[in-house]
Amino acid sequence: MRLPLAYAAGLALTALGAASASAATKTTDGVDLAAERAAIGQFQDLDQRLQDIGWRLVRGNAPFCETVLPSIGLQLQDTASYGRPDIAKAALGLKGAFAVQTAAAQSPSARSGAFPRNREIVRLGETDPNGWPAGERMDWERLTKAHDWIDQALARGASLAFTFSNGAVERVEPVPVCATRFELLSDSKTAVADGSRVVIGTRFAAFGWDEDEEFAGVLAHELAHNLLSHRVWLERNKRTRRHIRLTEREADRLMPWLLANAGYEPEAAARFMERWGRKHGRTILTRSLAYEGWDERAERIAREAALVRTLMEREGEADWSVHFRREIDPAKGLAVAARE
Questions:
Q1: How far apart are CA 45 and CA 51, in angstroms?
Q2: Whole-structure pTM over 0.85, yes or no?
Q3: Domain 5-9+26-178 is classified in which CATH homologous superfamily?
Q4: First-to-final CA distance of the chain
Q5: In the chain, which residues fall in CATH 2.30.42.10?
Q6: Beta pairing class for 160-164 and 121-124
Q7: Which of 154, 230, 260, 272 has the least C-beta neighbours within 10 A?
Q8: What is the 3-state secondary structure (H, E, C) of 288-312?
Q9: pLDDT tens digits along 244-287
């Protein structure tokens, strides 16, 4: 499913105008800047967790992905995408519109130490993104353009220089990752993959879990849909109940492979399904008769995890590009010319 990007990663937080703030923290509109910073920070905390775990998954599985891209694990924010860009700038102490949103743990951007949260960025290579046109508010397109621009620049060369508001310059070397972005959706309970992104809502229940490995199971399931090209396959072959079940089985079964290569226990995939299923039943990942019961799914995942555990002990990696058994024919529905 493709979602509208109007509320995707780094976008509007509108806890504006908190009462009882001191005058020193207020703008001329009477907005509490401290409350604004706190609201933005809460969103960024969730996004940081999402990016940290997502990075481990796409980085650890890069050797086995059909499509990889060079990445430094950096997310930007653009104040044009907030409900009140002027308030966001004032709250974060920015003169321009662009700053660091997250640097995924263990990524090149995080290892450099040059990308702390909210540090202002004024140039991407030789380009000033502030010069790109943007709407007055809630404009997500310019931020998407910036991330696309970074991906394309890294694909053309070995590294990319970032210039900060104090004139400092940092050049970062990318590493290969599986071609999927992770985005946080404001005020939503969703968990969905659209072929190129994994989108998780800020109110998704698993954000409340302390165990990163089980939360990683959510991301691994959605990532599996992208890596196995399920969205394209369903578009070619129709979203029948049987076809959806087949793609869900594959996504379930690939979860422990993806987790193992990211350094998590493959068994965490089954623990995730058990924990989710016992409480939520037929919602989100088990939301219709097109999906099997969570207990059946957990048992199947556990069997797959045992295979992955054996393979890890024998080979030190879980090469799903070679050893994973597909339940669908990826080429089904392609035109003869496309196959040739």
A1: 10
A2: yes
A3: PDZ domain (2.30.42.10)
A4: 29
A5: 5-9+26-178
A6: antiparallel
A7: 154
A8: CCCCCCHHHHHHHHHHHHHHHHHHH
A9: 999 999 999 999 999 999 999 999 999 999 998 887 765 544 44
